[in-house]
Amino acid sequence: MTVFDNSSFDNHQSVVFHADPDSGLRAIIAIHNTARGAAVGGCRMWPYASEDEALTDALRLSRGMSYKSALAGLPFGGGKSVIIGDPATDKSEALWRAMGRFVDSLGGRYIIAEDVGTSPADMEIVRRETRHVSGIAEGGSGDPSPATAWGVFVGIKAAVHARLGRDDLKGIGVAVQGLGHVGYELCRLLAAEGVVLYVADIDRTRLAKAGAAFGATSVDPGAVYDLDVDIFAPCALGAVINDDTIPRLRATIVAGSANNQLAESRHADALAQAGILYAPDYAINAGGVINIANEGPDYNQAQAFDQVSRIYDTLLEVFARADADGISTDMAAERIAAQRLHSKIDEAA
Ligand code: NAD
Questions:
Q1: What is the structure's pLDDT at 259?
Q2: Residue 78: CB within 6 Å of ligand 1?
Q3: Where are the domains of the chain?
Q4: Strands (E), 92-224
Q5: Is the CB of 179 under 6 A from ligand 1?
Q6: Residue 139: its pLDDT value, please?
Q7: Which pLDDT value is given to residue 260?
Q8: Would 102 disulfide with which of 18, 41, 106, 333, CB 3.0-4.6 Å?
Q9: Which CATH architecture has domain 145-341?
Q10: Which of 68, 80, 91, 157 is catalytic?
């Protein structure tokens, strides 16, 4: 395993490994940057095939969180934790308490939240060992998914404005891939605006529910890329924008919540060349972390969602920068985020 030479290392401030033999916990916390504030980022639990794979995921996601918070203008740095294990079989109170002690040992430099494979209920147990936890129901802002879905919804409106020159969504065709915490709520918001919905999920019960609630048409998971729709909204897993899928897409907008949608960064250019407007994932899916930034005794959901709505303007800024600089929207978002990240570092220096 290489750490400093890992292609996602990118000057991480700290990468901490921890094992707790009693509970079976094996975890990594990656802290990319704390120039803007404590490193905030979810905890992913996954049956990684190797420690290398777990480390690479932690580094990649942690760096992404720095850029996401900077682009959203939040007073947070970027971090992420991963637990090597199967969320279906390996969770226990002892494991979450051990994870809580691990987080606590970093003294607030890293603030944990839920992510793929973890839940607000898991975070409730983590909180028994540390106060450096966010996204919990009691005394916190709760599940971040509705805020994330709201951000994706306003982001879709920004993309429709920029690409289709329209400010309403009536009759627009959207294919939503993944009907989990975010995807299902996004469908609810889109259906209320008269969107024609197509949905794909490997869990057929969710498809039936969305069909009954929103009149959504179910499609085979493998066929979701080929649909004749205006928008493809990836809300499941990463790397779904790749050499195989781009030529198949008939949508002219890609805008969804999934993290790391591009298999490789060059796929942002491939999308642009194919005439597809891409809403960079970490710009459009920042609603959850913006909601967390509002956490505290005075938490007000309406105010938090107002702040999430600024994703609309952020995306218009990203699209305009891409046009002005002749670069992909992904590169434009990265340039804007890097400026915000580094200007703060300079101020602090
Ligand atoms: P989730 O686990 O609740 O939902 C994921 C859904 O995708 C599930 O219904 C699952 O069955 C489905 N799925 C898995 N593989 C699929 C496939 N091949 N085809 C179609 N469907 C498939 O997760 P979530 O919280 O809704 O998050 C969705 C995505 O958004 C993830 O990439 C996550 O990292 C990202 N994200 C979530 C949040 C949040 O607030 N929850 C914030 C930012 C980013």
A1: 87
A2: no
A3: 14-67+74-126, 145-341
A4: 110-114, 173-177, 196-200, 217-218
A5: yes
A6: 66
A7: 87
A8: 18
A9: 3-Layer(aba) Sandwich (3.40)
A10: 80
Going by the DSSP 8-state scheme, the letter that residue 241 receives in this structure is: B
Q: What pLDDT sits at residue 143? A: 79
Task: Report the nearest atom of ligand 1 relative to the CA of 236.
Answer: 7
Instruction: Tell me which DSSP letter residue 349 carries.
Output: -
Ligand 1 and 182: CB distance under 6 A: yes
Name the stretches of the chain with pLDDT < 50. 345-349
CA distance 349 to 258: 34
Distance (Å, whole) CA 250 – CA 219:
15
14-67+74-126 CATH pick, 3.40.50.10860, 3.30.300.30, 3.30.70.20, 3.40.462.20: 3.40.50.10860
Going by C-beta distance under 8 Å and a sequence separation of 6 or more, which residues neighbour residue 24? 85, 90, 92, 95
Q: How many angstroms separate the CA atoms of 121 and 135, rounded? A: 10
8 A C-beta contact, residue 178 and residue 203: no
pLDDT tens digits, one per residue of 9-55: 999 999 999 999 999 999 999 999 999 999 999 999 999 999 999 99
Full DSSP string of 210-227: HHHHH-PEE--GGGGGG-
Whole-number pLDDT of residue 347: 47
CA distance 140 to 266: 39
pLDDT value of position 137: 67
First to last CA, the chain: 33
pLDDT in tens, 61-100: 999 899 999 999 999 999 999 999 999 999 999 999 999 9
Task: Give pLDDT, residue 297.
Answer: 82
Q: Is residue 175 within 8 Å of residue 227, measured between CB atoms?
A: yes
Give the count of beta carbons closer than 10 Å to the beta carbon of residue 140.
21
For the question of residue 80 being annotated catalytic, the response is yes
pTM of the model: 0.88
